[in-house]
Design brief:
single chain, flat
């Protein structure tokens, strides 16, 4: 059951990275809108979206298949931490009563992605359905 649970966590968190990477690659206008709103435009631009989107798809794919876990799991964790930083006011104040300017309850599951990434790192040795485990790495 542990291995199946970790497999499901790995696939779901990795796919989420892949999906957002694809958005950056094929819908730059949407990615730019997110960047403009939450990152002050820092991550806007076609070249930036191409690079970040490609990297995001690669990291997500490595996580999904469980390859190079020593790097890919930490890459995923860093990605989710960076993604959480600009929406932190909405995480701390999901109903928009004190810190956030509005209610954004839909942002709160970002914490689950972050914590799931920590679980994958902490229990990597039990992730026996990964490519690395099959290669004895």
């Amino acid at each position: 059951m542990q291995a199946v649970s970790l497999l499901l966590l790995r696939v779901s968190t990795g796919l989420y990275l892949i999906f957002w990477g694809i958005v950056k690659l094929v819908a730059a206008d949407k990615a730019n809108a997110v960047s403009d709103k939450y990152y002050n435009g820092l991550l806007s631009g076609d070249v930036i979206n191409l690079g970040l989107g490609s990297l995001q798809v690669i990291v997500g794919a490595l996580v999904v298949i469980g390859l190079f876990r020593r790097i890919s799991y930490y890459g995923q964790l860093v990605w989710y931490i960076i993604g959480l930083l600009p929406i932190l006011p909405y995480i701390i104040d999901p109903f928009g009563k004190y810190i956030a300017d509005s209610s954004k309850l839909t942002f709160f599951p970002s914490t689950t992605l972050l914590f799931a990434s920590l679980v994958l790192i902490a229990f990597k040795e039990y992730d026996s359905y990964s490519v690395d485990a099959k290669r004895d790495i």
